[in-house]
């Protein structure tokens, strides 16, 4: 059974552990580099990414986190965690902020605005329906949420979301041009998968719906099996 680590420096790590528990999966708090060896996959929660980066720096976690991602182990970043996993972050106060990286995306911090512009919305996520045979909508909770404005070819888009015309006015053309723009609307990406990396701009751990957590556990088990089978020598018949 997968043991899921949850980076527990700051933010909503308890809520992730509780969501995993509801699925019967053990989640363990990670605060030190050596603890990463004890888990098969990792969740980086939402919170405040500059604070989380300072704490990760203080605990010398960046090299071990980068190695974890580079080794192909499953990692899921929610909100601030998504910012952590992006190769590039732009937007408010990103100067000098250390990132783990690995996800071939440009993430815009606080894309949807500040705390008072936080919102909830129904997202269409076909991948969740095919996993569970249930509805494909998911109630996304966006709190000072980032958005992915640019994604590389290896990145699978799991959900996107239209940008309101008011919000659009606050961006200059260098950012607007990166969005997916049609005559009717502009869209940004809010959930992605790139191999072992899953990223969501919203907070599934703050809902009672555990489908994202079961999707991540499923990815973790699949990747775990692949790694195991690559270690077992092929049978000679
Ligand atoms: N915008 C926040 C940041 O930059 C993330 C918000 C969140 O995780 N809810 O860290």
Automatic annotation (TrEMBL):
One Gene Ontology cellular component annotation held by this UniProt entry: cytosol
Top-level taxon: Eukaryota
SUPFAM superfamilies, sorted: Class I glutamine amidotransferase-like
A Pfam family assignment: SNO
Keywords: Glutamine amidotransferase, Hydrolase, Lyase
Residue positions binding L-glutamine: 47-49, 109, 143-144
Chain coiled-coil ranges: none
Active site (catalytic residues): 79, 203, 205
Enzyme's top EC category: hydrolase
Hydrolase found in the keyword field: yes
EC number: 3.5.1.2
GO molecular function, one term: lyase activity
Reactions listed under catalytic activity: L-glutamine + H2O = L-glutamate + NH4(+)
One GO term (biological process): pyridoxal phosphate biosynthetic process
Family under the similarity heading: Belongs to the glutaminase PdxT/SNO family.
Entries under HAMAP family matching the protein: PdxT
NCBIfam families: PLP_synth_Pdx2
Protein name from the UniProt record: glutaminase
Species per Swiss-Prot/TrEMBL record: Sphenostylis stenocarpa
